[in-house]
Amino acid sequence: MQLASIEQGLADLKAGKFLIVVDDEDRENEGDLVMPAECVTADAVNFMVTHARGQLCMPMTSERLAELEIPMLPSRNTDAAMPTAFTMPVDYAINTSTGISAHDRALTVQALIDPASSPGDFIQPGHMFPLRADPGGVLSRPGHTEAIIDLAELAGVFPGGVVCEIMNADGSMARMPDLELFAAKHDLKIFSIAQLIAHRRITETLITRVAEANLPTKYGVARIIGYRGSIDEGEHAALVVGEWKNGDEVMVRVHSECLTGDAFGSLKCDCGEQLDMAMRMIFENGSGALVYLRQEGRGIGLHNKIKAFVRSTGAGPGHYRSQCCAGVPA
To answer: Which of 223, 244, 260, 282 could form a disulfide with 266 if both were Cys (CB 3.0 to 4.6 A apart)?
Structure first.
């Protein structure tokens, strides 16, 4: 079954239809029914719990959760790299009964996005689970929680929604072949988080130029330009040497920060040697750029890299060649 385009998916969501959103096979490998919160009705809630059968949750922004004073639930014993951010479940306290019915849960959803609602309008704990979405959306955490928030914003509606995992009749999780049958049966489209990530990367400006100046180095004078990422908030930089025009081949080195190798001369890696060689080659070439990404250990962080050093067997020079910044011994 062909996946829906971003335009088709947004059109269905704006029309109040469900969209099946799938994530990567190497993550949860699940499909969720999603719908913007503005479109949720009692019938929609009933459809989700009857046919999807999974946990019905409501992704929201951290700002809105703070406004309603809905706290996070404590977590422990989780090995997940990006665990689901569950909050205290709530029920809307006005014109509802036990809170569990489709009618009551739909009212709770609508109340959670109503600007007139206040913290005192909700009972804690209740039956509707708000989830806190990562502010960076699917570019920071490629989950269903972030996907419906991003989709709602792209659709021009309130940044909130409902999600529910799709399970098979036997209680197992529905995978792509099952999801295709589900979609055909209920006339729904399937869309992937990977498509949403690609769309955002293509259409959004994710990095901003902050400052620039001339920088004398032992090889010569370069132009240093500072950049700030809108997702990772890292302070990245580029060293630019010489000039070029459109169509020219440009010598470029993209270097991932390695404090131990770049600054301390660590013998566990050759990162400092690579950096030095790249700068020398660019200056000898007369033009080029060195992009320096502030993501110590390729994202694992300095402290985790040091812990990896402790776990390693063998401390000789080059033991971590090409891999120390991945935090995994060679």
So the answer is: 260
Beta bridge partners of 255: 292
Task: Measure CA 319 to chain center.
Answer: 33
DSSP H helices, the chain, are: 6-14, 42-47, 62-67, 102-112, 144-155, 176-186, 193-203, 259-262, 271-285, 302-311
Per run of 10 residues, the mean pLDDT along the chain (length 330 residues) is 93 97 81 97 98 97 98 80 90 96 98 97 97 95 96 97 97 95 97 96 91 96 93 87 93 93 88 94 96 83 82 51 45
The Cα–Cα gap between 110 and 296 comes to 43
Helix 193-203 and helix 6-14: axis angle, to 10°? 100
* Residue 201 dihedral angles phi and psi, to the nearest 5°: -65, -35
Predicted TM-score of the model (pTM): 0.78
Question: Distance (Å, rounded) from C-alpha 176 to C-alpha 166?
Answer: 11
- The predicted-structure confidence for 100-139, as pLDDT tens digits, reads as follows 999 999 999 999 999 999 999 999 999 999 999 999 999 9
Q: What is the DSSP string of 63-79?
A: HHHHHTT-PBPP--S--
Check: CB of residue 155 under 8 Å from CB of residue 38. Answer: no
First to last CA, the chain: 41
Angle at 89 between CA 84 and CA 90, to 5 degrees: 145
* Separation CA 300–CA 304 (nearest Å): 6
